């Protein structure tokens, strides 16, 4: 049948290969009839046809074109005519053509992908069209479902006041929902690329937060950050962004999607609250310093007194003043931290010397615990001595606060692969597993019957964790409820 094949074999070989090929149909280019001259087994099976029924018939007699939409360029008649006209292969990546179930007579929605190649055969080198089809109903349905569920999710997010964005890295396509466009200070119908908007509107000093969140999300898959943006009218607003980074099989980021909300009011409240804490702590510090001086003066004056009550009362007053001073300093540090003013001043010092100093200070006011520490070695590090001392004091005073009188506190310091690690172990009440991560959060106090009466504000460990993180270190706890806890920190050596 084909001119290029050896005559004796050509027809037979062609027929066998053709009939076994996947989804192929050969039609003569005798427009408008387009006579079907051959069909593969696979073609017959997927279209529920038989060779007897279709060979020799006009294509559109057997497979009537869906002529509902005259502009539909994917229709078979338009495509075949174009192949004849242009003598070029035409691919239709996706089109719908429903088929009838021979048993029930019902039509079934089906999607196909096809290729139509011109083909020259026979003595007169006549033109044929090789129509190859592949069914893609499964893929199209899956894609539609994914699009619909994404659409539903977006609607749900927007109904709850969240703005959304979707940034596809490959096509540089970054879509903003109308809510996000408004949230960034533009009229809702402005065409805006979320990438461009974020690049230009996030305040320069907050851009590192965006980069850090992105870098973290490569490890965790999720990102969250709060930053300030400048609207086109120059007003400043806080936004909170949360989302997901999608990666391909090789772990390469391909897409970012997420939600954005305006948190300007919350931030203003927080700033007002922090200012209040800072002001109140400052105001309380001044009279307390003067009370402390008077108590110290009194103690000096009454040194010679033999009245045990006087000595006892003054010592107790001094202890309480120290406690209150620590609490106030905690609040002052907190407000400094929140306003970004907590700066570290690194210097080289011996960690064991610092630990010994902190233990000595603790033992001045506490005679009820035994502290075990071997600090004979010199362990030099570069860090902020004052701030690391604050962390140690917090660990030590908590070990005292949350364990019984007479119990032991063990302090250990050593170099590990991660740097210099310090551990403070007590035999106290311990911490439930569910609270172990949370105790490093601001104002978090673990719920435990036995420590209901122990005073505190849940600031110390939060400040400690901020100090350790500002040294690029790690802070964590291991604990068994009822047996005790070990608080650790490590900083790069
Ligand atoms: P505070 O002790 O003032 O409440 P911290 O931030 O220092 O604040 O501690 C937070 C919480 O962690 C405490 O309220 C307590 O529940 C728990 N905690 C801290 N240290 C210990 C410890 N050594 N043993 C048991 N619980 C502890």
Q: Keywords, please?
A:
4 domains; 493 residues; Beta-Lactamase; binds adenosine-5'-diphosphate; alpha+beta; elongated; disordered N terminus
Structural commentary:
It is a single chain. This protein has four domains: 8-135, PAS domain (Beta-Lactamase, 2-Layer Sandwich); 150-262, PAS domain (Beta-Lactamase), CATH 3.30.450; 272-338; 347-491, Histidine kinase-like ATPase, C-terminal domain (Heat Shock Protein 90), CATH 3.30.565.10. It is built from 14 helices and 19 strands. It has helices at 7-20, 41-47, 51-54, 59-62, 76-86, 137-159, 178-183, 194-201, 207-220, 264-301, 308-338, 351-365, 385-401, 460-470, and strands at 24-28, 36-39, 90-96, 99-100, 107-108, 111-121, 126-135, 163-168, 173-176, 222-230, 236-247, 253-262, 347-350, 370-373, 380-383, 408-416, 419-426, 474-480, 484-491. Strand 18 and strand 19 (484-491) form a beta hairpin. The termini are far apart. Residues 394, 398-399, 402, 426, 428-431, 439, 445-446, 456-462, 485 line the site of adenosine-5'-diphosphate. Residues 223-275 form the PAC domain. InterPro entries: HATPase_C_sf, HATPase_dom, His_kinase_dom, HisK_dim/P_dom, HisK_dim/P_sf, PAC, PAS, PAS-assoc_C. This is histidine kinase. Its EC number is 2.7.13.3.
């Amino acid at each position: 049948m084909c001119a290029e094949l050896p005559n004796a074999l050509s027809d037979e070989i062609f027929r066998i290969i053709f009939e076994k090929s996947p989804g192929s149909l050969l039609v003569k280019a005798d427009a408008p009839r387009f006579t079907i001259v051959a069909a593969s087994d696979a073609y017959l099976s997927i279209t529920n046809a038989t060779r007897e029924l279709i060979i020799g018939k006009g294509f559109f007699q057997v497979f009537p074109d869906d002529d509902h939409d005259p502009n539909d360029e994917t229709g078979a008649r338009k495509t075949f005519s174009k192949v004849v006209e242009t003598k070029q292969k035409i691919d239709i990546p996706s089109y719908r053509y429903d088929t009838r179930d021979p048993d029930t007579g019902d039509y079934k929605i089906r999607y196909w992908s096809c290729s139509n190649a011109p083909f020259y055969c026979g003595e007169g080198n006549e033109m044929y069209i090789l129509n190859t089809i592949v069914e893609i109903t499964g893929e199209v349905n899956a894609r539609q479902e994914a699009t619909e569920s994404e659409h539903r999710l977006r609607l749900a997010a927007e109904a709850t006041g969240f703005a959304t964005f979707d940034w596809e890295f490959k096509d540089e396509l970054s879509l903003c929902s109308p809510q996000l466009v408004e949230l960034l200070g533009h009229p809702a119908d402005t065409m805006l690329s979320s990438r461009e908007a974020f690049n230009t509107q996030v305040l320069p000093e907050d851009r590192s937060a965006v980069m850090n969140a992105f870098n973290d999300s490569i490890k965790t898959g999720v990102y969250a950050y709060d930053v300030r943006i400048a609207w086109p009218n120059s007003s400043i607003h806080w936004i909170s962004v949360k989302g997901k980074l999608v990666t391909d099989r090789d772990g390469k980021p391909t897409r970012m999607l997420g939600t954005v909300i305006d948190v300007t009011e919350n931030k203003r409240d927080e700033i007002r609250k922090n200012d209040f804490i800072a002001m109140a702590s400052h105001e309380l510090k001044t009279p307390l310093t003067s009370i402390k001086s008077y108590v110290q003066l009194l103690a000096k004056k009454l040194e010679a007194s033999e009245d045990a009550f006087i000595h006892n009362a003054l010592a107790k007053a001094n202890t309480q003043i120290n406690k209150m001073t620590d609490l106030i300093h905690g609040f002052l540090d907190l407000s400094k931290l929140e306003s970004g003013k907590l700066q570290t001043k690194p210097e080289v010092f011996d960690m064991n010397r610092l630990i010994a100093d902190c233990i000595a200070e603790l033992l001045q006011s506490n005679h009820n615990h035994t502290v075990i520490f071997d600090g004979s070695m010199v362990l030099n590090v570069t860090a902020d001595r004052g701030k690391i001392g604050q962390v140690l004091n917090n660990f030590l005073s908590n070990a005292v606060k949350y364990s019984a009188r007479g119990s032991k506190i063990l302090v250990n310091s050593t170099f590990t692969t991660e740097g210099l690690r310090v551990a403070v172990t007590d035999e106290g009440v311990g911490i439930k597993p569910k609270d172990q991560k949370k105790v490093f959060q601001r104002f978090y106090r673990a719920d435990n019957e036995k420590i209901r009466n122990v005073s505190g504000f849940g600031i110390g460990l939060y400040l400690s964790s901020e100090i350790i993180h500002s040294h690029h270190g790690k802070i964590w706890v291991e604990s068994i409820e009822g047996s005790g806890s070990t608080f650790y920190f490590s900083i790069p050596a």
